[in-house]
């Protein structure tokens, strides 16, 4: 294994903290990763990692070497990304995670176009509503909706997504249409629950310059985006969701927007990845592609 590959293996092990996960990410065997790190430590004359049965951690010497390794890999990534749009030099595995809300026909078809444009990139697509740990799970980048907590991840802004409150025509016929957010307490709501603690995600409204928050206390709770929307279509009650996942249902008339004049402030959509200085060319080209495609795909539901 040449020096550049050795540094790539070292950096990946430093990030993932696991020989097995590093082997999977680098598409090689665990023994090969072990030998590579042992040979590197022997050549440098220092121990780079503290190894236990559960965790692999950098030593102080390893931390110093990791900082230099990131600089080297960053320079290499910058050089190779100069030719990223030719469609021929892009190769390798690309692990992307998206919320279930985005796994709609329009985006999936566009992802297929991406693989046609870059046929040597092996795309691994994860679809989930839980928060993914990019470093621990070896994910290259993720799409996320909403305000982002402070972290070491790099976030690139895509746009502001318009939120819509709606219900089925049958529900509105039976229960009436609320005219203000204050009337929601007399209605059934569909609550989206997220996170490990199954927290209810509140609805937001914007009224005369003031933000209002509302959590439905009557109705059904759901922890998956597609099921959340289907409950609305089935007539369980009122829901609030990004316009991009409601678009076809609103157009078909299976859902009807309510409280339009109280639409909440749009929520940010971002693409996140672990490091700016250690960015693989295939990740770079995907991030730029996503930022270019989203306004094209969802122009009517996305603000800059």
Automatic annotation (TrEMBL):
Residue ranges of every copy of the HTH lysR-type domain listed in the record: 1-59
Listed InterPro entries: LysR-type_TF_proteobact-type, LysR_HTH_N, LysR_subst-bd, WH-like_DNA-bd_sf, WH_DNA-bd_sf
A single BP term in Gene Ontology: DNA-templated transcription
UniProt-recorded Gene Ontology molecular function terms: DNA-binding transcription factor activity; sequence-specific DNA binding
Classification via CDD domains: PBP2_CrgA_like_3
Keywords assigned: DNA-binding, Transcription, Transcription regulation
Entry keyword annotation includes Lipoprotein: no
Family: Belongs to the LysR transcriptional regulatory family.
PANTHER family named in the record: HTH-TYPE TRANSCRIPTIONAL REGULATOR, LYSR FAMILY TRANSCRIPTIONAL REGULATOR
Name listed for the protein in its UniProt record: Transcriptional regulator
């Amino acid at each position: 294994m040449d020096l550049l590959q050795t540094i790539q293996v070292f950096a990946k092990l430093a990030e993932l903290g696991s020989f097995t996960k590093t082997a999977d990410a680098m598409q090689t065997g665990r023994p090969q990763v072990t030998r590579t790190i042992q040979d590197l430590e022997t050549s440098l004359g220092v121990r780079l990692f503290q190894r236990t049965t559960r965790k692999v951690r950098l030593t102080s010497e390893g931390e110093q070497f990791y900082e230099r390794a990131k600089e080297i890999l960053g320079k290499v990534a910058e050089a190779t990304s100069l030719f990223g749009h030719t469609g021929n030099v892009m190769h390798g595995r690309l692990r992307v995670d998206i919320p279930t809300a985005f796994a709609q026909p329009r985006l999936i078809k566009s992802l297929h176009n991406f693989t046609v444009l870059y046929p040597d990139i092996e795309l691994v697509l994860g679809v989930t509503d839980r928060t993914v740990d990019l470093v621990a799970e070896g994910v290259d980048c993720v799409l996320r909706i909403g305000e982002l907590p402070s972290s070491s991840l790099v976030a690139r802004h895509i746009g502001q997504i318009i939120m819509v409150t709606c219900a089925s025509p049958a529900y509105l016929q039976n229960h009436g249409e609320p005219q203000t957010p204050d009337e929601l307490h007399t209605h059934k709501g569909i609550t989206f629950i997220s996170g490990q603690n199954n927290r209810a995600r509140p609805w937001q409204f914007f009224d005369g310059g003031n933000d209002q928050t509302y959590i439905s206390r009557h109705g059904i709770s759901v922890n998956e985006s597609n099921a959340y929307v289907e409950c609305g279509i089935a007539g369980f009650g009122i829901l609030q969701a990004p316009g991009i996942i409601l678009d076809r249902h609103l157009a078909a008339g299976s859902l009807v927007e309510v409280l339009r004049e109280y639409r909440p402030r749009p929520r940010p959509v971002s693409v996140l990845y672990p490091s700016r200085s250690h960015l693989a060319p295939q990740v770079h080209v995907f991030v730029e592609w996503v930022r270019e495609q989203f306004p094209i795909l969802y122009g009517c539901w996305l603000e800059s």
